[in-house]
Amino acid sequence: MIVTVTLNPAIDVSYRVPNFQMDQGHRVENGNKTPGGKALNVSRVLKEIGSAPLCTGFLGGQSGVWIQKQLDEQEIEHSFVTIKEETRTCLAMIDEKSGTQTELMEIGPVVKNEEIEKFKVSFQHLLKEATMVVASGSLPSGVPVSFYQEIGALTREANIPLLLDTSGEPLKFGIEGKPFLIKPNQTELSQYTGKVESTLEEMIEAAKAICSQGVQYVLLSLGAEGAVLIGEDVIWQAKVPRITAVSPVGSGDSMVAGMAYALQKKYDLDECLRWACACGLANALESTTGMVQTEIVQQYLPEIKVTAL
């Protein structure tokens, strides 16, 4: 069982506007409303491609109740810790004329110390049944910036691989927890190193330096250019076919889902990278964040060229 951890989930609402104008009123079709948060996106993709994830994290208020109801309808198992404050809502305005997307993201609830401790107890219980953990996204207020380091220590003690997808200070501390794999994009890698890696060689060297700290693999996503999987003694590069994307939002989460699925199946690393990229591509062809169609994933698998560097 793959346990996914979303510590700062949200209700994601997106509106498509034919020609968005600032300081104007717009009548729009009903918004697309989905359970949001990076690891919840991972969970939906895992469910679609044939895995059985279990979601955990913090949920509060009527927003939290709505998210759990949606997961029930999607037949995705969950075990969240209930908090006193309301789970956040995030809005996206998609301008169909310009192709731009403007997002308004609530900071979210403040999680209390006793709620954090309750999560730790629950998480350790879930680890008894887990074969892998995926932790993704930002941390809510009240949760220490080092919390992913603590999750790394707990998963390592239980001998469960951790796939971590976050950024900024949580990533810095998370790396100290020695996760099995991290998935930065080029911007997030530069934020971590404090300098701009402009060439592939520089990015690979930065990733290898991270691996020397105890992280086994770095899955570096490069958008339309594909991805690179780097370990201390292995480098695989994936090049993907050109597509006309509907929405690339959530493709990174879908990559993590594909990687987790393939690792659980014990596929070779090059095939794991191929699955990660195929899921990322399939998500970019959907209007809903964190959604793929299995037949589209299968269609793109043979079109992704993976080579050793």
Q: Key features?
A:
alpha/beta, 1-PFruKinase, 38% helix, eleven-stranded mixed sheet, four-stranded mixed sheet, ATP binding, globular, UDP-N-acetylmuramoyl-L-alanine:D-glutamate ligase, Tagatose/fructose_Pkinase, 309 residues, ATP-binding
Helices and strands, with pairings:
Elements: E1 2-6, E2 10-17, E3 32-36, H1 38-49, E4 54-60, H2 61-73, E5 77-78, E6 81-83, E7 88-95, E8 101-105, H3 113-127, E9 132-136, H4 147-157, E10 162-165, H5 168-176, E11 181-182, H6 186-193, H7 200-211, E12 217-221, E13 227-230, E14 235-239, H8 251-264, H9 269-284, H10 294-300, E15 305-308
Parallel strand pairs: 1-4, 1-9, 2-7, 4-5, 4-6, 9-10, 10-11, 11-12
Antiparallel strand pairs: 2-3, 7-8, 12-13, 13-14, 14-15
Helix pairs in contact: 1-8, 4-5, 8-9, 9-10
GO biological process, one term: small molecule metabolic process
Pathway: Carbohydrate metabolism; D-tagatose 6-phosphate degradation; D-glyceraldehyde 3-phosphate and glycerone phosphate from D-tagatose 6-phosphate: step 1/2
Protein name: Tagatose-6-phosphate kinase
Could you characterize what this model shows?
One of its GO terms (molecular function) is tagatose-6-phosphate kinase activity. This protein is an alpha/beta fold and 309 residues long. It has a single domain (2-17, 32-308), classed as UDP-N-acetylmuramoyl-L-alanine:D-glutamate ligase. The chain is built from ten helices and 15 strands. The strands form two sheets. Strands 1, 4, 5, 6, 9, 10, 11, 12, 13, 14 and 15 form an eleven-stranded mixed sheet that branches. Strands 3-2-7-8 form a four-stranded mixed sheet. The two termini are 33 Å apart. The mean pLDDT is 94.
